[in-house]
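Internal tracking record. Fields below are filled automatically when a chain is submitted to the structure queue. Please do not edit lines marked as system-generated. If the sequence contains nonstandard residues, flag them in the REMARKS field before resubmitting.
Queue: standard
Priority: normal
Entity type: single polypeptide chain
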Amino acid sequence: MNRIIPLVILVLFSTESYSAANHSNLESDIGRPGDSDKVSRIIKLTQVDNMFLPAEVEVSEGETIQFVVKNGGNHKHEMLMGSMAELKKIAKMRRMYPDKGHSETQLLQLEPGEQKEFIWHFTRAGIIDFACPLPGHFKKMRGKIFVEKK
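SYSTEM-GENERATED OUTPUT FOLLOWS
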């Protein structure tokens, strides 16, 4: 019993610090929420029950994109942007704590048939991954955003 309490405390504190640290690092690495007055174009994505359509998107460094994401599947889905390493960590957290609330800036949660929009400003060239981090979805529901140097 004496060993269980410190373990529980460690897990609780590590998940909270993980969430806060991950949020701030992820945001600076992949860009930031964009201004609707500066949108250069709209990109539509559709989620189906095993993939994103399209699964690859090209944007330019400095571009502000309005993403329109529709859940065309029969199950709840999410869309989360970040590096693959970060997405894997978040997907693992979803498996361990499926009922915990999630507040990542670049996260959309969609019910079947639902459509949502978000605006993102891409500040650096590189490759940004996106995925549905829900348990059982992550291995197949992935895509990439190629941010080309301006």
